[in-house]
Specification:
With about 600 residues, the chain is mainly β. Helices cover about 0% and strands about 50% of the residues. The chain has a domain at about 355-415 and about 455-505.
Length: about 600
Amino acid sequence: MNNNLRIKGDFAFRNTDNSTEQKRVPVPYSAKPGVIAYVGTTTNDLRIDRRETQYLATNVYGEYENTFLDAHYLKFMAGYNYEESTYKRLMAQRNGLIYQDATDINLALGQSILTEGGWEKWNILGGFSRLNYSYKDRYLIEINGRYDGSSKFPSDQRYAFFPSASAGWRLSKEAFWKVSPDLISDVKIRGSYGSLGNGNIGSYVYQEQFSISQSSYILNGIRPQYTSRPSVLPDGITWETSTTSDIGLDFSMFADRLKFVGDAYIRNTTDMYTIGLTLPAIFGATAPKGNYADLQTKGWELTLSWRDEFKVMSKPFNYNMRFSLADNRSVIKKYNNPDKLLSDYYEGQVIGEIWGYTTEGFFIDANDVATHAKQSPQMRASPTNLWFPGDIKLKDMNNDGFVNVGTNRVADPGDRKIIGNSAPRFTYGISLGADWNNFFFSTFFQGVAKQDWYPSVESESFWGQYNRPYNNVPLFHLGNMWTPENTDAYFPRTMSRAASSSTARELGVAQTKYLQNVAYIRLKNIQIGYNLPKNLISKIGASDIKVFVSGENLWAYSPLYKLTRQIDVENTGPSDQVLSSNNSGDGYNYPLLKSISFGLSIAF
């Protein structure tokens, strides 16, 4: 076979077993000497739950590569990709264990028997190709194409083609380029345009699905099974497509000591998979998810690095620095919300914007409550509908005598305005490194220069007992709650449930006073080490031996920490409440841990 032609393939198989076994038996405890009671006196069962996911993937492709006339370089690749995932579940549960240590379901003889199953399968098939061409390493062209199909879409919308192309021009290779490489070593201008498809959705969202359940009622001596109506289906569903236009510049200066890489791009996401417009209650069902929106993202990225060396005690001291910075802003370009209701996406919406009230302070006395704009009935203090000194006082922005949401439209938001944005802006990274006389050092910082966060009503770590009476009291609340003697406190009077509803409670509504600045910088890693001299390690046949100490997450700073250090700043931020209802941005994630480790690395 011609050495310029290569055929390659790979195959991967992964079996994921999430099976569990659960046994429940009464647990004895004693509240006082001589008296034994039991927790779970009605439970005495065994559950065996077998869950298994089998995933396989294969790629087969051919490559042809050649150089013609010492100037033209050509490389062509084409192949196909196949992926398949199958999930199976079988669960059995039965009560009446003969003895507490039983681990076989045959040793459960009770009449309460529960069985459940599950099955899900999806597969993806695609063809791909790439053509690379360069002329004297001066003109660079790459053309890509993918044709993908997914079982997650209806048969008439299952396949889509995603092309892309890029080109580069290395000016520093042109004959007319007369600049010394000691000043400007390399200059390249790049441009690209292309699309990619996203099919990461549920396996059967385009099909009517019926769930079968067992009734709790007994009819004719049995508990009959029943099914409920399926969810509303979207009007067709297909690939979400992201099309990106990019222009970039690469250059290096001072004999490659200084390097710069910069890109500016516009990404248009069409047929974005999201939930539909909120429907009237008379519709009787939740709006389905579908390809309802278009989104445009404009952004840029840059990296600046410097590498050099100089002599220290007649030995070279090498050092390097690298700084990266990126930013983007996303705007909804299409969504069927002609009235621009704030409860849904709307055309012109900047992703992450936070609509909220302006906090004037706290009510100081009964007269202040009586003469202020009415904050009821749309909002109420908790647990009653009465307002007292120490409650939050919000500003009547439109001077109509009421503090409310108006018609909840962009044109009439009541007394709210955009007070912040939860999307991270100006993300950056800084890395430093050096080595001298076999000693080496490296460190890496990362951060976000601008980001806002309003704690949701489920942020227990922020609201504490303002959310629920049985929550813990965060340390930063102590001495920081309003009393007649402490009117400059950060939080209102002590009460519960003031932050347990996002629609009707004084702390649950976004407002300027509790909007948090969660910009941060964090030392992610620092490492110091020593490479043992080659003349020593060669005696034992080793090619490299190093000892080092490394630290992770040792330091961080954020304006949030001026208020509380009980919440890790990287565990705050937005969760897409349109696509999900989780509260992953409310500090519930496991916090990042500080760690110091010592290591020894030996290579032969």
